[in-house]
Backbone:
């Protein structure tokens, strides 16, 4: 049986950071057992799984968040870039340590259910905490995209963060003044939005995210939109109206999105755009 060198975790993290990640952490595979549903735990994917390596990075640039064009905002996703780092980490573990390593695909197994929750993995690996709006936020880097590798290597696990990045001080101040926060105000469930929550003593004690409502609004130019438009075109008896559907802006943008996976395939970003904790600690002019 392979034996890990004493500096295995340090070498692993150095490899991840040199490959392009800005954060790397390790969680115990056993920590998922009481928290993740059966079929979506590390051991369900890789027999003998002992550790889960999480890398974060590829976050939108500061200029992306303040872009005036909604088309830029909806297509600024850089999430695919961190997946190459995850593959590099898996290759490194097998080549240098001699243990199995499985790169977890970022897609879904069925419906909206991921193979393994990247959010839970990032939390357990000590890389961030959940926000009122849902995404995991790093105290130093803000909103990151994640990649996950499950391995049989017995790596030492990192500890979850003790202090969450959310709510940020400006959000706590806004709650005291107005009873809301930037993310809750921009998309309130009470007014047909997707978010709800409450702060007590400066901490979030209740959060709610309507995933189904958000999905129907955000994924308009994705697979569901393609299926709906195609069905409408096939059912349309009028030739000219059928051409309008197939050659119109909506169907064209949908094909572009499906082909390049870069248009509206996640949240709409409005909650993160106004979130003081989502953009990292470094102020820009």
Residues:
């Amino acid at each position: 049986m392979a034996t890990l060198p004493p500096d295995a975790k340090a070498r692993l993290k150095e490899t991840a950071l040199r490959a392009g990640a800005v954060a790397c952490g390790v969680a115990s595979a056993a920590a998922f057992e009481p928290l993740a549903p059966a079929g979506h735990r590390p051991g369900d994917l890789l027999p003998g799984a002992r550790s889960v390596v999480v890398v974060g990075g590829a976050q939108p640039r500061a200029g992306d968040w303040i872009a005036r064009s909604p088309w830029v905002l909806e297509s600024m996703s850089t999430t695919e870039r961190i997946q190459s780092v995850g593959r590099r980490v898996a290759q490194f573990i097998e080549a240098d340590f001699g243990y199995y390593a499985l790169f977890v695909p970022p897609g879904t197994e069925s419906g909206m259910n991921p193979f393994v929750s990247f959010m839970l993995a990032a939390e357990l690996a000590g890389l961030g905490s959940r926000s009122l709006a849902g995404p995991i936020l790093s105290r130093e880097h803000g909103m990151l995209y994640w990649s996950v590798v499950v391995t049989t290597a017995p790596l030492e696990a990192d500890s979850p963060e003790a202090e969450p990045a959310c709510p940020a001080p400006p959000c706590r101040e806004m709650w005291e003044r107005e009873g809301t926060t930037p993310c809750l105000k921009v998309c309130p469930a009470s007014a047909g939005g997707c978010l709800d929550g409450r702060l007590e003593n400066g901490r979030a004690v209740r959060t709610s995210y309507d995933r189904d409502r958000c999905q129907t609004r955000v994924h308009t130019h994705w697979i569901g939109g393609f299926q709906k438009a195609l069905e409408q075109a096939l059912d349309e008896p009028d030739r000219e109206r059928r051409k309008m559907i197939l050659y119109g802006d909506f169907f064209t943008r949908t094909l572009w999105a499906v082909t390049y996976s870069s248009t509206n395939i996640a949240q709409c970003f409005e909650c993160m755009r106004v979130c003081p904790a989502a953009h990292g600690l470094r102020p820009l002019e």
User: Anything to note?
Assistant: The radius of gyration is 21 Å. Residues 79-97 form the longest helix (19 residues).
